[in-house]
Amino acid sequence: MNRKLIFATGNEDKMQEIREIMEDLGIEVLSMREAGAYLDVEENGESFEENALIKARAICEKTGELTLADDSGLEVDHLDKEPGIYSARYLGRDTSYREKNADLIRRLSGVPDEKRTARFVCAVAAVFPDGREEIVRGTMEGRIGYEEAGAHGFGYDPIFFLPEYGCTSAELLPEEKNRISHRGKALRLMKEKLLSLGVLG
Q: What global pTM score does this model have?
């Protein structure tokens, strides 16, 4: 039985979201920094799933602990699913999301609502010290808006419009976003999988 797990990220916004979703498990959830696993892992896979596994394998090997990792991004249908697995690197890693969001809005200039469909995708991988691996995927469907809106969330959230809610994902309260988000869905699927395997507790 595992009393802790490591989530292979250094993103504090992401860690807060992960802890909120996993808190009822009664186990310690550590970031790479908290686990002392300072690795710069090259994400050279060709899918969200491959990149998540690459990160989880590297940190599990370094720490010897159950490790989870995710890879997530935005797929815009009109742009042939760009930026996809390159979402974090879109226009360069050091480019602000305000600039990235503005560029996507510009590229969709004149494109009508029905062709602005997009989705957030999140793959979550679990790698166990004994070599077992599990992987799940969650998605959240929406459209690309015409301007940034909302102060919650991060990344592409301010331009990701959810028609059924009439707002962007950055305008949702964190607990509501976690309930419907791609990462929230994937983490809950992984939590169910880990519980069914009897590896937590």
A: 0.90
Among 119, 134, 140, 139, CA closest to 52: 134
* pLDDT, position 201: 55
Which amino acid would we find at residue 24? D
Q: For residue 32, which amino acid is it?
A: M
CA dihedral angle for residue 157, residue 142, residue 117, residue 166, rounded to 10 degrees: -100
User: Under a CB-based contact definition with an 8 Å cutoff, are residues 154 and 147 in contact?
Assistant: no
Q: Binning pLDDT at 50, 70 and 90, where does residue 146 land?
A: very high
Least confident stretch, 10-14, 41-45, 75-79, 197-201: 197-201
Q: What is the span of the domain harbouring residue 193? A: 4-197
Record the tokens describing residue 59, joined without a space.
């940190």
- Specify the DSSP class assigned to residue 201: -
The total of structural domains in the chain comes to 1
Return d(Cα 134, Cα 152) in angstroms, integer: 31
Q: Are 157 and 104 in contact (CB under 8 A)?
A: no
The catalytic residue positions are 71
| CATH number of the domain where residue 93 is located | 3.90.950.10
Side chain identity at residue 63, one-letter code: T
Label residue 14 left, alpha or beta by phi (over 0 means left) and psi (-120 to 50 means alpha): alpha
d(CA 124, CA 136): 5
